[in-house]
Hints:
By secondary structure, the chain is mainly alpha-helical. The protein has one domain (20-218): de novo design (two linked rop proteins) (Up-down Bundle). Helices cover 69% and strands 5% of the residues. Its main location: other. InterPro entries: Connexin, Connexin_CCC, Connexin_CS, Connexin_N, Connexin_N_sf.
Amino acid sequence: MTWAFLRDLLSGVNTYSTGIGRIWVAVVFMFRLLVYVAAAENIWKHEHDEFECNIKQPGCENVCFDHFFPVSHIRLWALQLIMVSTPSLLVVFHVAYRENREKHHNRKLYKNPGKIDGGLLCTYLISLILKTGLEIVFLVLFYKLYNGFKIPHLVKCDIKPCPNTVDCYISKPTEKMIFLYFLVATSCLCIILNLSELTYLVFKYSIKCYLKRHVKKQQ
Length: 219
């Protein structure tokens, strides 16, 4: 899997972001994308092959693995990274629309096409709300699918075709748990950053609008 597109997208968004938005981009790129590609992907690479049960009944291991891990952690993280980064495309597309509009009219229509104001401000706020919502949705999804943020050393399975309750062992559970906590923590940090940026922008432009009205009244 190549992550060049996501890297280029984050680099493009960084150009139009606020200071808090740039911190978000750094967290996603350094503490999520790089950690995923460099380490986490390899840890879960052979999770199915290394899942062992203390019985050789044909089909038992496959059914038990599917029951306890209905979706691979690593594929769900990859999907999460892509989904939470995608709303940033709205901002990139809006800036591109402004630039193309200026070229079409062959004159300057905006002081700065990448400045967060007017319609672009609304687009930026929508992208923040979508990113925050998707982060929360994936955290809830993780919790529901795996019965909490934990990797057990041993799971007991009694699903057919297993003839009785069998013990199944997960490989490298402690190492996986450390990365699980790290990725959940960075996801929570991204939610905090998104909410902080959302609050900052709303407060900043509320004050700006209030001051404009106040000046008009005085005039």
